[in-house]
Amino acid sequence: MSQTPNHIAIVMDGNGRWASKRFLPRIAGHKQGVDSLRRCVKACADRGVAILTVFAFSSENWNRPIEEVSGLMDLFAMALTREVPNLKADGVQIHFIGERKALSPKVLAGIGLAEFDTAKNSRLILNICFNYGGRWDIAQAAAKLAAQGQAITESSLNSAMALAHVPDPDLVIRTGSEQRISNFLLWQSAYSEFIFSDKLWPEFDENALDDAIAEFSGRERRFGQTSGQLLAKKPSTVPN
Question: 7-233 has which CATH code?
Fold first, then answer.
């Protein structure tokens, strides 16, 4: 029986390489990546995925060439203006996850408006990790608890993480053929299934998403238990 993951997280890798293969500037690949994200959001909603979390800009991406970073910031601001009204109409609730101190007033205003305008939507929750890092997330959660005088436990840390409003991802997909986590959802992906796609992000379409979901549905998720224990928990199909 096919099983659709409740929460999919994606490292959207390969925009720059997609552009370079076509002798285009890297920012052209990022623009194409926005189109791919638009398709992916719609496809997830159509397939009954409740939560989609994407890695849009990592805290390490500031180390890229200044022209690329500047272009990414301009593209992000433009995408907020262009895409949010459509996402709102499609029932998508948007959350931006990451450190906001380094972002410009224009970007901050766009983020705030997008979250406010879509807060009542419930068809799909879209978490956009922007200026995000998994280590930052754990550190900010621990600092928050320490400032409040709370004990630092697994439970309290979990409640203080930047993605505490959603359950952990069932499936993490990374495009672009790289097989590493790159400081993405270090805490939340402890028991996620991982799929690494050879497709560059601008090439990742509905068929690629369906392939990933099909592979996920064939996996056995044991969460530390044995296959026998899981089998014993399944309800009997023998009639009384």
Answer: 3.40.1180.10
